[in-house]
Each structure stands twice: as structure tokens, then as C-alpha cells.
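Hypothesis: this fold can be encoded by more than one sequence.
Test: take the C-alpha cells below, design a sequence, compare later.
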């Protein structure tokens, strides 16, 4: 039954409606909320009544209750924030403070929750103690999408951030290597079929990383099309992130005359680049022939070496690992027999290549330094494993080039978080008893609870081994 006009005409508080119930005209406070982009009315409660042509208040206008979450995740946040809290200051030196906080918090949440999606970031933030330490960071799905677009469009700030990190690590040993990542988006220019793509049925994006062997963390990253050769991509990578000093360790895929010539032009920079065993320099300088000098000072294995000075700007370093040579010989024979392709003549022709690796450099280096740098490059493979398996970032799930640039930058920040956490855990007697995933699983049990004064927080009670771990990592009460 419609409400009479004279009743609707009675003066009453704003944002109210009149409804008739059991013969009474009740005044109800109303607000609205957006559902699927449309405003939907929401009744807040009865506040008065129309009696004898006048508004009579029954109770005060209800105030909208402020949402508060009184129990928040603390353990994982505290560990990651402790390990890499200085990244926020580094980001703020390049980006505006709002963007810096958004990038930092997203990277931190991804480091804590390995498979979190953009749509879940706001909830993860609100239920994490990160929202108390870094309050007011907007992370709705729509906001994050706009952030990725803007950060990717303003790529110069991403590049500046990484250039600053490379400059801060001047004189250190850096490894450059690439990693293929599933990317089946047809809306960007990076998704291409790599040489490995056909086997796994997926297109790829090629991520080129620079890795500091001392700190064991990445210093720069840049995406390239999946079908771009490493030797081509590395020229652009070095131009984007100039390395002017230290020792640069490169993978065999980067070996080309153009790349080596470019590296020789950089004053103050030493480099080592593996050569293909079929390279003419290897054969012409007798590096396929037997050599017997033992590499002194390398305790992990018995390594034979030979050093050749070709000219003032070209030095060759050959290393042969007898144990590795034996394993490769057995593997070659076994594989050939299994496939029915084994040839004794071919085996003998390859005998001088088993266990052999040859490097070219423009610098007169200590062979021990060269081999240690080569052996140490395994750490970047550990980092790639951290990226793909521990952080679950092995598939591109954003649309467009700009968002891919920004997403891979955030992934790079997350890898820094977890690389530092991994290093911190390995040096802690208590934490080192557990795997990386175990530590995060145990720390996820640690919460902080809001006290009655609505300001202070207390840590929840944990089982003994979790409390012991938190205390050992100095993130307990």
C-alpha cells in the first residue's frame, strides 16, 4: 500500500525512507553499497516514527560501524620485512611514496603467500600486520591493475631503480643468465615460441637476470620475447644496465664475437664467457690437447687447467674435471646404446671434449678466480629455482606489455625478499633445521591480537617449536 503524500511531506532526517508496518509509519535510515557496479540500497535501522503529522525520534541516527580486524597474520610478514625492509627506502628514492609503498607491500605479500592473485591482495593486506606497519595502502583489484599499467608505462623508473642497485654493487662479481617462463598471452609482444616451447606446448617470455654472487640476490631483470636468442638479448641488457667494473660471468648462450667485442670496450670491467668446444680458438690454441697442471686452492674437486695468452686483450682459460669427464663418457655411451646410435669412432672424436670448459676474457686473471666464479654461477640456478618453485611465479598471468614489465619488476622484488630470507635462515642454527617452506608454514601460525584499548597488540601463544623459531629469528614478543 503506498505511503500517503502528507506523511511523506513531514520533515524528517536526510537519507531516510518511510515504511508502513502494522499501521505505523516508521522512518528508516538508509545508505547504499555498490554491487557489480550498481548502487544497491541498504537499510541501517529504524530511527523514528511519523505520529500525528510530526517526526518523533526513537533512537539516534546509527553511525556506520568502522570495520576493524582484531587478529592479523604476523610471523611471515615480520620475517620478510626484517630481511628486506630497506627496499622501501630504495623504492622511495625513485618512485613517489604512494607507489613505492604499493610496490613494496605487493612484493612482500607475494613473498609471504607464494600463489596469491591480484584479486586477493586487498584481503591479504587487511588481514596482515603489514596494514598496521604500512597503513593506508590501496590494493583493490582495480587499483592494482591501474598501478601495473602506470608503472609499466613509466618504465624509466624501473630501469633507474635497477641501475642504482648495479651501481651500488660496483666491483663485485655478477652473473648474467636467462630463464624461460610460460606466457601464452596473445595480447603482448613477448609471448613467442622458444626452442623449448614446442616440447612443452607453451609459448614463453625470456627473462634475463643479473645476479650478485656475494649477496646471492638479483640486481636487475628485463623481459624479452621467448624466441630471442640470448646472445642478442644480452647486448640490449648490458646497454640498459651498464656494468662498468667487477667481473661479469656469462653463460655459453651469450658467446658471440659481437658480445665479446662489446665487453672488451668497457674499461674497468673484466668478464669470462664460455666458448663452444667447437670454437676455432679452442682448437687453434691447443686446448683440446691433454694438460696436467692442477688448480691449487680449489678444495671441492680435482681440476686440471691451462691458461693461454692469445694477445693483450684475449686470454683463454681451460679447465677439465676428470670425474665429470668420466660421468659424461658413461652417459654418452649409455644414451647411444639406448637409442641404438652409439658409434665408437664418434665417441673417440669427442673424447677430448668430455669434462672440458673453456673461457675467454680480456683480462689476465688468476685461474682459481676464474673457476671459482664459474662454479659460483650455480647460485643463479638456485635463484631461478626459488623463482619457479618456491614463489610459484612460473607463468605470466597479466595482459599487455606494460603490465608484464611491472609484474616482472614486482616478482624481482619478491625474489629479493625470499633470497634474503633464505640467506638469513641458512645462517640461523634453529631455522636451518627446517626447510624454507616449513619455516613459512610454522610462522603462518603466529598472529597478533588487538587488545581492549584498540591500540596495543599482543602475540598469540604458539606451540613450543614455533615460539622457539620466532624467538631465534627475533620476531617474537
Amino acid at each position: 500500500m503506498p505511503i500517503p503524500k502528507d506523511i511523506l511531506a513531514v520533515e524528517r532526517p536526510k537519507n531516510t525512507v518511510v515504511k508502513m508496518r502494522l499501521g505505523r509509519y516508521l522512518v528508516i535510515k538508509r545508505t547504499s553499497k555498490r554491487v557489480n557496479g550498481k548502487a544497491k540500497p541498504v537499510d541501517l535501522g529504524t530511527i523514528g516514527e511519523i505520529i500525528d503529522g510530526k517526526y518523533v525520534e526513537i533512537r539516534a541516527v546509527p553511525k556506520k560501524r568502522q570495520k576493524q580486524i582484531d587478529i592479523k597474520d604476523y610471523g611471515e610478514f615480520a620475517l620478510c620485512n626484517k630481511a628486506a625492509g630497506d627496499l622501501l627506502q630504495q623504492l622511495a628514492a625513485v618512485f613517489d611514496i604512494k607507489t613505492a609503498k604499493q610496490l613494496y607491500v605487493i612484493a612482500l605479500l607475494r613473498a609471504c603467500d607464494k600463489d596469491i592473485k591480484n584479486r586477493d591482495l586487498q584481503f591479504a593486506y587487511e588481514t596482515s600486520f603489514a596494514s598496521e606497519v604500512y597503513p593506508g595502502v590501496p590494493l583493490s583489484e582495480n587499483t592494482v591493475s591501474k598501478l601495473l599499467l602506470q608503472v609499466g608505462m613509466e618504465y624509466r623508473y624501473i630501469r633507474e631503480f635497477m641501475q642504482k642497485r648495479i651501481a651500488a654493487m660496483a666491483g663485485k662479481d655478477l652473473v648474467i643468465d636467462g630463464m624461460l617462463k610460460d606466457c601464452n598471452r596473445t595480447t603482448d609482444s613477448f609471448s613467442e615460441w622458444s626452442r623449448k616451447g614446442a616440447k612443452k606446448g607453451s609459448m614463453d617470455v625470456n627473462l634475463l637476470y643479473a645476479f650478485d654472487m656475494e649477496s646471492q640476490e638479483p640486481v636487475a631483470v628485463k623481459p624479452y620475447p621467448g624466441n630471442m636468442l640470448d646472445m642478442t638479448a644480452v647486448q640490449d641488457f648490458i646497454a640498459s644496465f651498464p656494468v662498468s667494473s667487477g667481473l661479469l660471468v656469462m653463460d655459453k648462450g651469450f658467446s658471440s664475437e659481437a658480445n665479446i667485442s662489446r665487453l672488451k670496450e668497457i674499461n674497468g670491467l673484466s668478464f669470462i664467457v664460455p666458448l663452444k668446444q667447437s670454437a676455432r680458438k679452442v682448437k687453434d690454441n691447443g686446448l683440446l690437447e691433454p694438460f696436467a697442471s692442477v688448480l691449487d686452492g680449489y678444495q671441492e674437486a680435482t681440476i686440471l687447467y691451462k691458461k693461454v695468452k692469445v694477445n693483450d686483450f684475449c686470454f683463454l682459460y681451460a679447465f677439465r674435471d676428470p670425474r665429470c669427464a668420466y660421468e659424461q663418457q658413461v652417459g654418452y655411451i649409455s644414451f647411444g646404446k639406448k637409442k641404438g646410435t652409439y658409434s665408437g669412432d664418434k665417441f673417440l672424436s669427442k673424447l677430448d671434449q668430455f669434462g672440458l670448459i673453456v673461457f675467454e676474457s680480456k683480462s689476465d686473471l688468476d685461474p682459481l678466480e676464474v673457476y671459482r666464479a664459474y662454479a659460483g654461477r650455480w647460485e643463479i640456478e638456485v635463484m631461478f629455482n626459488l623463482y619457479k618453485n618456491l614463489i610459484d611465479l612460473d607463468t605470466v598471468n597479466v595482459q599487455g606489455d606494460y603490465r608484464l614489465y611491472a609484474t616482472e619488476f614486482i616478482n624481482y622484488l619478491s625474489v629479493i625478499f625470499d633470497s634474503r630470507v633464505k640467506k638469513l635462515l641458512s645462517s640461523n642454527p634453529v631455522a636451518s633445521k627446517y626447510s624454507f617452506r616449513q619455516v613459512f608454514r610454522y610462522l603462518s601460525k603466529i598472529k597478533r591480537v588487538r587488545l581492549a584499548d584498540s591500540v596495543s597488540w599482543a602475540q598469540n601463544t604458539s606451540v613450543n617449536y614455533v615460539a622457539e623459531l620466532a624467538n631465534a629469528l627475533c620476531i617474537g614478543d
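The two ends are 62 Å apart (CA to CA). Residues 5-57 form one domain.
Hypothesis status: open.
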